[in-house]
Write a structure and sequence with these properties.
Length: 343
């Protein structure tokens, strides 16, 4: 089917084949998006209900409808993108308050005093998941970096409900809440890297130290080009999904190269052909290696890992830990930088 003679069939037959390949690609994207899904989106209570009832209870999911706006020692304040109301989650994902932002902040302050929670200090590492996922997909990375001694901030954002710029603004609110933290680094998967790049474009923060991107489509995703007009794709992946296109006039192409040190981790077979025959060159099933690579990276590496599995792979996590500690992805300190154009 994909041996190079595919396009030499008669026109009518070629049309049938092109429709079939598009359908197969849509199924592939769906599989990559849903694999190891950490929760099922569940609608939250209405704004009126939220203001009337304030009983602590375990969340029912629905993380695609919420964005983090405040963090303190594992406690998180989130805002609902539909109703606009807020909720306060404790480290066990139990809602301890909801309603207005002031109500949630007041409750958190009471908790801080009552439990004598210490102020935040040292270096924080903010984790950003990819589209259609949540911070739960970065759990293994979180566990490793916590062992390394960092204050880990698992950032949740409604990746399928708002555009990349809106998610970046939420990230900015969380960064501002990290009072007492001296340095801030970022570890991202897929679209999470684009959110950080957008946030840096919006002004960033002088405490920013470095950035690691895993499978980020820094030059767009070819699959988005193919599927962007499909109703199901538009419905599931929302406005941000439309921004993932590999086009010179698109949102991604206009993002500036980060001015802080950064490294790129890509998935691929390390050969001329990747996991997905519909993507030119090497790829991780969804993102081409050439797209993940971004000029100006201080280090880069390719692992034989599919896109959705990058944050779960032990070698990838080792590389992340190494770069944060030493500035090199490899334990031996060897670096493979990506030169900027003209250098």
């Amino acid at each position: 089917m994909f041996n190079g003679t595919f396009y030499e069939v008669r026109p009518a037959r070629a049309f049938r084949w092109s429709s079939l390949t598009a359908l197969l690609l849509a199924c592939w994207v769906g599989l990559q998006s849903f694999v190891m899904a950490d929760e099922t989106p569940v609608p939250e209570v209405s704004r009126q209900q939220a203001l009337q009832v304030n009983v602590p209870m375990k969340t029912l999911g629905g993380r695609q409808f919420w964005g983090d706006v405040h963090f303190f020692q594992g406690w998180t304040i989130q805002q609902n993108v539909f109703t606009g109301h807020f909720r306060l989650l404790d480290p066990g994902d139990v809602r301890q308050a909801w309603g207005s932002l002031d109500v949630c902040k007041k409750t958190l302050e009471d908790v801080r005093v009552e439990r004598k929670l210490p102020p935040m200090t040292g270096e924080a590492v903010i984790l950003l998941h990819g589209i259609f996922r949540s911070s739960k997909a970065m759990k293994r990375v979180q566990e490793r970096l916590e062992k390394d001694g960092y204050l880990v901030v698992p950032f949740d954002y409604p990746s399928t409900r708002v555009d990349i710029s809106a998610s970046a603004k939420m990230l900015g609110d969380v960064v501002k809440s990290l009072e007492g933290v001296e340095k801030i680094s970022f570890v991202t998967h897929s679209m999470g890297g684009l959110v950080v790049r957008s946030w840096l474009e919006q002004g960033g923060d002088p405490r920013s130290r470095c950035l690691v991107m895993m499978g980020t489509p820094n030059k767009g995703a070819e699959v988005a080009d193919i599927l962007r007009d499909w109703h199901l794709y538009r419905l599931v992946l929302g406005p941000a999904g439309q921004q993932l296109v590999a086009h010179e006039s698109g949102v991604i192409a206009k993002l500036p190269i980060p001015e802080i040190p950064f490294a790129v981790i890509a998935g691929g077979k390390g050969t001329g052909e990747g996991y997905n025959p519909l993507i030119p060159g090497d790829d991780d099933g969804l993102v081409a290696v050439t797209s993940a690579h971004l000029e100006g990276a201080e280090d880069s590496i390719v692992f034989p890992v599919l896109h959705s599995f990058l944050p779960f792979d032990a070698q990838v996590i080792d590389a992340v830990s190494s770069f944060l500690k030493t500035g090199a992805l490899r334990a031996d300190g060897v670096r493979v930088p990506i030169a900027k154009d003209g250098e």
